[in-house]
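Module 6 notes. Inverse folding takes a fixed backbone as the condition and produces residue identities as the prediction. Think of it as a translation problem where the source language is geometry and the target language is the twenty amino acids. Below is one complete input and output pair. Work through it position by position during the lab.
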């Protein structure tokens, strides 16, 4: 059995991709809940702005810059954090990028890029920050996956594959660390109004200006606010949840993936490119 759940008030939390979108909303929600928040982003200025906003809410906050795809840099960050702050109570692996394009339109360099950030970034962080949490017997890791992690599409094989891997990694790590007192949750957002489109590579027919414009319009006008995901993150920590779909489309995809016949989900994947 786990040796106790994390009390967010007074906890030391680290959020990657904290400069904008889901990461920023999560950092602010943690600050409002009384946590000490370490904001981490590849963009130092953005991380510092979020840290300043956390401090305005009365929370202790420090900003750091790191590229989560760089395992050496992540290990160096862990050394600094552990020396200056001690072991984390909460780790939120949110940093991620997007990819839209059919498989044959994607060069292998695109696969290297998205896997290194979306999947290996979280693995690097867990490998660097997890051991002290396990040794202490208390903590919680939250990995941001996606509704596309269980909803295959014809036009997002790169993004969907990495997010499916994040989901599988999270559930495996949860099984591994449960008896060590460390919880692990996978959050699976649907369409969220964040700046991820500015960090998305569009390839092939998906790169057509009218298609890109439609995607941006969907995210801006139909996307859920990032605060919805932040609330799910805090609930996952408090209640030690395993998999948390966020948004009606993500919840629908989760139940369809579990209960619908494979023939039906395969058909949905084939027609997915027509949705936008």
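Target side of the pair, the amino acids:
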């Amino acid at each position: 059995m786990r040796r106790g759940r994390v009390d967010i008030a007074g906890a030391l939390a680290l959020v990657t991709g904290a400069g904008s979108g889901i990461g920023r909303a999560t950092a602010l929600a943690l600050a409002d809940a009384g946590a000490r928040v370490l904001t981490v982003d590849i963009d130092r200025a953005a991380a510092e702005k979020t840290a300043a906003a956390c401090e305005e809410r009365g929370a202790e906050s420090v900003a750091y810059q790191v590229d989560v795809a760089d395992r050496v840099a992540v290990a160096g960050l862990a050394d600094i954090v552990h020396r200056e702050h001690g072991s984390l109570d909460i780790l939120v692996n949110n940093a991620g990028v997007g990819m839209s394009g059919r498989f044959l339109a994607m060069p292998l360099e695109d696969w290297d890029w998205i896997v290194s950030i979306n999947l290996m970034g979280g693995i690097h962080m867990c490998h660097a920050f997890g051991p002290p949490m396990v040794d202490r017997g208390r903590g919680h890791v939250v990995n941001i996956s996606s509704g596309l992690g269980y909803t295959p599409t014809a036009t997002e094989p790169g993004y969907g594959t990495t997010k499916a891997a994040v989901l599988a990694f999270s559930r495996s790590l949860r099984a591994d660390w449960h008896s060590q007192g460390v919880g692990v949750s996978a959050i699976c957002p649907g369409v969220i109004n964040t700046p991820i489109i500015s960090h998305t590579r569009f390839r092939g027919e998906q790169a057509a200006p009218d298609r890109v414009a439609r995607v941006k319009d969907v995210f801006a006008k139909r996307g859920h606010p990032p605060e919805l995901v932040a609330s799910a993150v805090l609930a996952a920590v408090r209640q030690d949840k395993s998999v948390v779909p966020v948004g009606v489309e993500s919840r629908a995809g989760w139940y369809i993936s579990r209960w619908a016949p494979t023939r039906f989900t395969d058909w949905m994947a084939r027609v997915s490119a027509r949705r936008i």
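Reference fact for the lab report: The chain has nine helices and nine strands.
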